[in-house]
Amino acid sequence: MQSFLTGLIDMDWLFLIGTAAFSVSGYLVGVKKRFDLLGVLIVAILTAIGGGAIRDVLLNRTPVVFRDASPVFVIVTTLALAWLFSLHKSWSSTMDRVLTVADSIGLIAFSLAGAQVGIDFDLNLFGVLCVGFITAVGGGVVRDALVNDVPFILHREVYGTLAILMAGLLYWARHQGFMGLWVVWVLFTIGLTLRLVAHSRHVRLPRL
Description:
Layout: H1 2-9, H2 13-32, H3 37-58, H4 70-84, H5 93-120, H6 125-146, H7 159-175, H8 181-200
Helix pairs in contact: 2-3, 2-4, 2-5, 3-6, 5-6, 5-7, 5-8, 6-7, 7-8
């Protein structure tokens, strides 16, 4: 618990928000696929930590989830609440909307959190974009591959594009000297709004 509170003070709240959101996303995908309890847990956990783990391996550091108990605490708490509110008992159009919102929150939060890690590692623009992108979509790709679905980034509304855009905007803001929590809040709000609007209006990149 002390590690959890310290993480919030250190502004790791963005990473924890993304972890919670992707936990719900993975949980709902597991429910939709009618997996058993263990299957749902595996899908939820991999969705929540997959992108960050891939990122950390690329950066040659031990994955955060192996060093800090905060993500595990968030995942367990989120899944317990999802079970308590009986999200597993029925699937409806409402659950589709919850899945979209949860996945969108996770996407934007992780793209910004991943980009910040790249900035902290003093990567160039390309490096920051790659790290932000991998953090944001890595867990979803692992989840979709595991359940035999086409990954979101290959066919859904400007999904991966938004991850790259938000990472780039954070890189630009930092290099322009815009610091502080308010910058991240503004970018998070912009990114989430763009994602939800794009989904509701079915905005897509041109298809070949």
